Amino acid sequence: xxxxxxxxxxxxxxxxxxxxxxxxxxxxxxxxxxxxxxxxxxxxxxxxxxxxxxxxxxxxxxxxxxxxxxxxxxxxxxxxxxxxxxxxxxxxxxxxxxxxxxxxxxxxxxxxxxxxxxxxxxxxxxxxxxxxxxxxxxxxxxxxxxxxxxxxxxxxxxxxxxxxxxxxxxxxxxxxxxxxxxxxxxxxxxxxxxxxxxxxxxxxxxxxxxxxxxxxxxxxxxxxxxxxxxxxxxxxxxxxxxxxxxxxxxxxxxxxxxxxxxxxxxxxxxxxxxxxxxxxxxxxxxxxxxxxxxxxxxxxxxxxxxx
Length: 307
What we know:
Layout: H1 2-31, H2 36-46, E1 52-55, H3 58-61, H4 66-73, E2 77-79, H5 87-97, E3 105-109, H6 112-115, H7 141-147, H8 151-154, H9 158-162, H10 166-174, H11 208-221, E4 226-231, H12 244-253, E5 257-259, H13 281-306
């Protein structure tokens, strides 16, 4: 029995040592990444100081060209969008950024599936795990606990934090595959055929946690950052009832909502899209010019009111 306890103790010690070793290697790979998603996450959390920041999901990272925003508005811009993510992830990066500074303008691209509707919120924690319990990331810890109270205990494990991302970290240190321009990643593709129609839902179930973080971001921008919500086009002409919660929030706080969700300028024009949900580079260029002009008008109107 005594021998069994000794062996068990040795095994537990080895697990702890391995766990810390994986954590040390993972941290080093994160901090020394030469490019790719890893370096981009680090830059967003710890480096960007742009006047204009764009947040949201893949419809943010692929639809908003910072160069066009800069040329129109005369301010620096950076795209902080993340594929497959929404407000829970975006709010975490927003908190890390605002430990350093508040941008002049925050454009938030709303994607209903990631920002409004009920879903599995665990998947939005992946991009934040590197920054958990770090000096510049302490503000993200509570996000984990709100999504799942057991995350408080799971995150003690360094292995759990890096989980299946080690191959990506190694690649981003040796030969990064993803390139971007100020965070923007255009898609140089064009739809070759119309997608199959999607059934329109009659009712929607909204996620109270997502709405909580949207409202929290709004309140934290007050008096510091001009927040603007936007909804870029979908391929099909469709109604926008799914976006009712963000409309109500914008009405409540008198925040601009620039919705082109059902804009016939873009809808059903294959030359502007690479799939049902995403603009290609041609579409993104046209949309970025349009949205930049609308934002310029908002800023000018605000300045006129302040005179």
